[in-house]
Design a protein that fits this description.
Layout lengths: L15 H10 L3 H17 L10 H8 L3 H11 L4 E2 L2 E2 L2 H4 L16 H17 L4 H4 L17 H8 L2 E2 L2 E2 L7
Antiparallel strand pairs: 1-2, 3-4
Helix pairs in contact: 1-2, 1-4, 3-4
Length: about 170
């Protein structure tokens, strides 16, 4: 799987639930948030998305803390952000949109979405339900003339004009 992504919400770092979990578990808020990020990644990688399968030992090793620290955080997260091994709100927040047509997620690949858009546009045009027909658009006419340089006297005047404060000396009389 090449660079799979998951989503965070903008206020995630400031969400008061992390401070509550930190206070109740007796652990630093940074450790609480780090555990949650690891849980999100685990849930995203899992075949049954949203379910965590990372062990307490793995989390403790990854974060360089004891298993007791992880246990206290996980117990405090229960009922707040975890329901057993399921991250609460996963289905609502982690919708798969661009998963290259994974049928089990009923998401379409970008190519499939574009194909469907083109088909909708084609049908709209065939049915005469086109926005262009209802608009009052003013069409501009373009009249382009090509100058054949018929103004010979203007060219003569240009030769007698000042260049950098000095009168051009070509074709000067007397």
């Amino acid at each position: 799987m090449a660079n799979a992504w998951l989503r965070l919400w903008h206020d995630m770092p400031n969400d008061p639930k992390w401070r509550t979990i930190a206070r109740v578990s007796g652990q630093p808020i940074a450790t609480v948030m780090a555990v949650y990020i690891h849980l999100l990644v685990s849930a995203s990688r899992n075949v049954t998305r949203g379910h965590i399968d990372v062990t307490t030992e793995d989390l403790a090793s990854a974060l360089d803390v004891t298993e007791e620290v992880i246990d206290s955080i996980l117990q405090t997260m229960q009922g707040r952000v975890l329901d057993g091994d399921l991250i609460t709100g996963w289905e609502k927040r982690q919708v798969l949109k661009e998963d290259n047509g994974n049928i089990s997620q009923t998401a379409k690949s970008p190519a499939e979405r574009k194909r469907a858009q083109r088909e909708r546009e084609r049908k709209r045009e065939q049915n005469g339900d086109c926005h262009g027909a209802s608009r009052n658009v003013t069409h501009m006419s373009r009249r382009v003339t090509t100058d054949k340089d018929t103004d010979k006297d203007t060219d003569q005047e240009d030769q007698n004009t000042m260049v950098h404060g000095v009168k051009n000396a070509t074709n000067q009389a007397g």
